[in-house]
Amino acid sequence: MPTVRDLTAMAGENPITMLTAYDAPTAELVDEAGVDVILVGDSVGNTSLGHESTLPVTVDDIARHVGAVSRATDDALVVADMPFLSFGVDDAESIENAGRMLKEENAEAVKLECGPHTVDLTERMVQLGIPVMAHLGLTPQHVNRYGGYPRQGTDREAADRIFELAREHEAAGAFSLVLEHIPSNLAAEITAELDIPTIGIGAGPACDGQVLVVDDAVGLSEWSPSFAEQFGSVREEMESAIDDYVSAVESGAFPADEHSHEAEDLDELY
């Protein structure tokens, strides 16, 4: 199992792979494929819990899914994505919530959607033994402020702000940095500047690694963002299998003789 130190050492050397997972069967498949990092993302709200955004996801939700993923993972680094308002309001509560993911659910690190308010918090968490993966650019927990999910860092002022926050979080002790939905040339400049690895999602090929929501990667999502790639067609396979099951039950083809058995000793009872 790679440590956060191992991941940091991969910057500029070996491409880092990261996928989300929210349950044990998916985590097992992702782990067996050799993915470096499994992110138990607050995107579970959209993908699995039926919410329209990540905002309703709770600490208990994330803890439950982190536990399921960590129990099924042998090799990948498991990172818990801290949900909306679980950090940054009160430092003691932020640390307690993040620490719970390591202490009770066996995550190895946490991810924070970052801003100026998380620099000191990152430093304090790291001091206490909680490794922090920072996240800049498009931070979906700010959907109401953005009015959607627009690309970030598209003008010089916004780009400079992201660049400076990246430096500040590295100095605070973050071991890696997710860059989401920013111009590829900005991501390239940040990657060249930092010693810690950058992991991009919609941030171009120059990042030290890439992350996708697993539902997008395997083709389970009904809709995927423009920067994602579907590497399979799981949704179509599931639809076909479910349709076949319904047809088999309705026609009487399932269950067949091989799906059941009779106990001879019961013949005289009825």
UniProtKB/TrEMBL annotation:
Protein name: 3-methyl-2-oxobutanoate hydroxymethyltransferase
Molecular function terms, GO-annotated: 3-methyl-2-oxobutanoate hydroxymethyltransferase activity; magnesium ion binding; methyltransferase activity
Localization, UniProt: Cytoplasm
Main subcellular location of this protein, as a coarse class: cytoplasm
Cofactor(s), by name: Mg(2+)
CDD domains named in the record: KPHMT-like
Family: Belongs to the PanB family.
EC number per UniProt: 2.1.2.11
UniProt keywords, alphabetically: Coenzyme A biosynthesis, Cytoplasm, Magnesium, Metal-binding, Methyltransferase, Transferase
Any one Gene Ontology BP term: pantothenate biosynthetic process
Species annotation: Natrialba aegyptia DSM 13077
GO CC annotation terms, alphabetical: cytoplasm
Subunit record text: Homodecamer; pentamer of dimers.
Pathway: Cofactor biosynthesis; (R)-pantothenate biosynthesis; (R)-pantoate from 3-methyl-2-oxobutanoate: step 1/2; Cofactor biosynthesis; coenzyme A biosynthesis
Binding, Mg(2+): D42, D81, E113
Class of this enzyme: transferase
Catalytic residues (UniProt): E180
Positions annotated to bind 3-methyl-2-oxobutanoate: D42, S43, D81, K111
Catalyzed reaction equations: (6R)-5,10-methylene-5,6,7,8-tetrahydrofolate + 3-methyl-2-oxobutanoate + H2O = 2-dehydropantoate + (6S)-5,6,7,8-tetrahydrofolate
Keyword 4Fe-4S annotated: no
Cofactor info, note text: Binds 1 Mg(2+) ion per subunit.
InterPro entries: Pantoate_hydroxy_MeTrfase, Pyrv/PenolPyrv_kinase-like_dom, Pyrv_kinase-like_dom_sf
